[in-house]
Design brief:
Blueprint: E1 2-6, H1 10-22, E2 26-31, H2 34-44, E3 48-52, H3 62-73, E4 79-83, H4 88-96, E5 103-106
Parallel strand pairs: 1-2, 1-3, 3-4, 4-5
Helix pairs in contact: 2-3, 3-4
Length: 133
């Protein structure tokens, strides 16, 4: 699977890249902001984009806004949005008219999260165990 990772935290980004490549996936780009994410997705047409909600320059919602732009420009690109908080307005916009296949994974390990780090890299459209929403 060809994957783009977008997260401003260098250690997390490198860790995700290592986990995914060790699992046999190809990370075609690992970027730290929304502008670079949009360029990487346009250039590489990945099988999955893993996106952090908060990225530079304001560290508020640049990642989720970039995800909404990607969804509007190319609805076939599967997105996995990582967040430590929930911004319902953008989440609702992101999934409102989505084609089958969307997901989120909490980094907090909260009790409400049912997704584990071990399972999400394989939980993409076309992967074994994928359940369209």
């Amino acid at each position: 699977m060809r994957i783009v990772i977008a997260d401003d935290a260098v250690l997390l980004r490198a860790g995700l890249e290592r986990l995914l490549t060790d699992a046999g996936h190809e990370v075609v780009a690992a970027v730290g902001d929304g502008t670079a994410l949009l360029s990487a997705v346009s250039q590489h047409r990945p099988d999955l984009a893993v996106i952090d909600v908060r990225m530079p320059p304001t560290f508020t919602d640049e990642g989720i806004r970039a995800a909404v732009l990607i969804r509007n420009q190319d609805p076939e690109v599967p997105l996995l949005v990582l967040s430590q908080y929930v911004e319902e307005r953008y989440a609702s916009e992101l999934i409102a008219d989505s084609p089958p296949g969307w997901g989120t994974c909490s980094r907090t390990g909260s009790r409400t999260s049912t997704t584990s780090w071990e399972s999400w890299p394989m939980s993409a459209p076309g992967a074994p165990g994928w359940i369209p929403r």
